[in-house]
Write a structure and sequence with these properties.
This protein has 234 residues and is mainly β. The chain has strands at 8-12, 15-19, 25-27, 31-37, 43-46, 55-56, 59-67, 75-78, 81-84, 91-99, 102-107, 116-121, 131-132, 143-149, 155-159, 167-168, 171-179, 187-190, 193-196, 203-211, 214-219, 228-233. The strands form five sheets. Strands 6, 8, 9, 11, 12 and 13 form a six-stranded mixed β-sheet that branches. A five-stranded mixed β-sheet has the order 16-22-21-18-19, with no helix packed on it.
Length: 234
């Protein structure tokens, strides 16, 4: 009478798995993994329990990706798999993929050296890199400039150090203008900028501007032939 080795069936909430007679385990089809990219400089792939994916059994999986950024995307790649979300699109994407014994990677195509992760499948050893998350660096503070017009027929534009702003680097600036004359105004004109105080206005205003390469002129409109100056942006 022939002898048969029994098969042990194991069921779980996440799906079914079975153990073969020689003791090898295999994942059931349909296990779901969750990928996320954005809104900052982060990317991840986790299992149903929320743990980062570092190693999987070979088989077919459902990948649900939540793309939260128009600056990034989620690109899953490896043998037999090449799935990605568009860089300029946000939303939820669902893929069905089959992993074999190999290493797989997920990256942001726009920032592949900063946002990346990897995992091994089956007999493939786990890669040395798992998941990399980088916080977006804070924006550099805007440089400050000081504008003044009046009293009388005087006008100036200075750096925060007090030096005259004859040459400036292109970039973002915060310009604090002190208008001390009811007969003059402070008018800044140049590439992408056209800001002015009122002629009868006196007081302080602050403008947030981006200065591009070129020449910027500051003047009093009622006396622009006499009351004026300029700054070159490089």
């Amino acid at each position: 009478m022939p002898l048969f080795k029994p098969l042990l069936i194991v069921l779980s909430a996440a799906g079914a798995a079975f153990v073969l007679s020689d003791g090898r385990a295999a994942h059931a089809q349909g296990t779901t993994l969750h990928g996320t990219v954005g809104p900052a400089f982060n990317i991840s792939l986790v299992d149903a329990t929320g743990n980062p994916v570092t190693h999987l059994e070979n088989g077919t999986y459902t990948i649900v990706v939540d793309d939260k950024s128009e600056e990034h995307n989620f690109h899953l790649q490896g043998p037999g798999v090449d799935q990605f979300t568009p860089v300029e699109t946000v939303g939820t994407f669902t893929w069905t993929v089959t992993f074999t014994d190999a290493n797989y990677a997920f990256i942001c195509d726009a920032h592949p050296t900063l946002m990346k992760g990897a995992f091994g499948v089956g007999t493939a050893p786990p890669p040395t890199t798992t998941t990399t998350t980088v916080s977006k660096p804070p924006p550099a503070p805007a440089a400050k400039l000081l504008g003044a017009v009046g009293p009388g027929s005087t006008i100036s534009l200075k750096k925060s150090s007090g030096a005259s702003a004859k040459t400036l680097a292109a970039g973002k600036y915060s310009i604090s203008v002190r208008d001390l004359s009811k007969a003059q105004n402070f008018h800044l004109i140049g590439p992408g900028v056209n800001k002015a105080t009122g002629v009868r206005f006196t007081g302080r205003v602050t403008w947030a501007v981006t200065l591009r390469k070129g020449v910027y002129r500051f003047q009093s409109d009622p006396a622009r032939a006499r009351v004026h100056g300029s700054a070159r942006v490089k």
